[in-house]
Glucose-6-phosphate 1-dehydrogenase (Ardenticatena maritima), 507 residues
Amino acid sequence: MPATEFISRRPDPAAIVIFGASGDLTRRKLMPALYALYTHGLLPQRFAILGFSRRDWSDDDFRTTMRDAVAEFGRVPLDTTQWDEFAARLFYLDAQGYDHLEDYQRLRDRLNTLDETEGTDGNRLFYAATPPQAFVPIVESLGAVGLNQPPREGAWVRLVIEKPFGTDLASARALNARIQHVFDESQIYRIDHYLGKEAVQNLLAFRFANSLFEPIWNRNHIEQVQITVAESIGVENRAGYYDRVGALRDMVQNHLMQLVTLIAMEPPASFDAEAVRNEKVKVLRAIRPFDENAIRTRIVRGQYGPGVVNEKPVRGYREEEGVAPDSTTETYVALQLEIENWRWAGIPFYLRTGKRLPRKVSEIAVIFRRPPLLIFDDQRRRKMEQNVLYLQIQPHEGLSLSVNIKIPGATMRLEPVMMDFCYHGSFEFAIPEAYERLLLDAWLGDATLFIRADETEASWALFTPVLEAWQRMPPPDFPNYAAGTWGPPEADELLARNGHAWKLMLL
Ligand SMILES: NC(=O)C1=CN([C@@H]2O[C@H](COP(=O)(O)OP(=O)(O)OC[C@H]3O[C@@H](n4cnc5c(N)ncnc54)[C@H](OP(=O)(O)O)[C@@H]3O)[C@@H](O)[C@H]2O)C=CC1
Ligand SMILES: O=C1O[C@H](COP(=O)(O)O)[C@@H](O)[C@H](O)[C@H]1O
């Protein structure tokens, strides 16, 4: 079934302005996503895409570069006729700088012209796809030339902001304040691309469109929850960014905490942006803060040393280009958190993420309690497997439930088997990229899958004390795990202390 059948309304005609249009994100994600939306008939009839950056390009240079990008990174193969139609709506403005007001005056004039020539009706979607240093200059310059307001009644202006959103609580608050000084919160769309992943959205469908699991989705039936977001890649060519940031800021504060909120939230009264986000914030605020003792005992940080990944020898983090030879940046974090509310009190949520782990996998394991009485001999002889619900986010989207069944034969012997749902087996069409969904939602004005200011601050409030404590503590003894392994042994001990062990669907 084509994706168009699922869309209840088509986005308004609009101009999207991409700041940082010469960058990696635009090439690898944004333009392929926009082209995919176009080829699926999900963009409006009238639109314009205006690239804005300091690169000295013409409209044609931009079109050619984007064509190459879509050919290289696109999910949808490039079709010459469709590309030419699409590319006719691509435009470019070369700026002196992101705080250069004359450029924004030119931008305003260009947008007014596009309203005339392309019929974009005064609607503007601004996308800050630059490094974070440029976020405030972009926002304030837009405000200074009046581009934070629509040029006419009935039109809209929205702002999409990329990650990272701050580096701690104080900087996130300051960034929110600066942006909200210019744009109303209802205009602001903070991206977390994990929320655009199909299998992440399915967490909501799974929980709130089925009556089967919700009655047992609580501390009475669930023993523990595990979230693994593992990457086999290293720091790649992003050392300049990553070495200042580390895994806690890069992955845990945003992506993993978003997964926690979706697993743990109460059912919202409706599938409306405010209702959903209210419930997510409640989860974040109910998490027990990490005190000094918890930081020492319930959070493990690691950094990879040399090792072997996918059968190839790889360098250690400190040997990566652009990384200081004595860097103490963590490339791995595992932690245990507790949500202090009636649904979850006392249930450990274990989270782990890291680079240079054996394979790329994002998965949530919901581990149910054992039956209260073991009546079968076989169960007494060997510890019976618990039911585990595996919610698989990537690379294989789906879900699996392990259940114990009788092995055919004369005796009552049990074995766990998997009841599987796999997207690829059930649906014919390809799964959209996260940025397709998020761009479309921002264009439609649906903020459900975007992060509200209070969400980002609640998450930073949890982790800022951790970052500060790490600064005070003696430097960690890094590297402490070899590339190609599942992280430092302390991460296993964290669970073993409670009689638990990390679980993944396929080891
Ligand atoms: N790349 C990716 O896959 C992902 C990126 N992101 C986020 O998206 C944003 C953009 O990422 P990415 O495209 O990789 O970044 P880039 O480093 O490629 O920067 C994008 C563009 O911004 C301009 N730029 C670079 N440095 C600065 C600076 N210090 N001040 C102002 N402008 C600058 C450059 O354009 P010019 O010099 O021509 O003006 C550059 O082409 C970041 O916030 C990143 O965290 C999020 C998820 C994935
Ligand atoms: O935001 C980020 O995410 C990627 C991982 O994203 P995924 O969609 O491939 O799981 C991570 O590699 C990067 O360091 C981080 O900035």
Q: What stands out?
A: Confidence is low (pLDDT under 50) at residues 1-5.
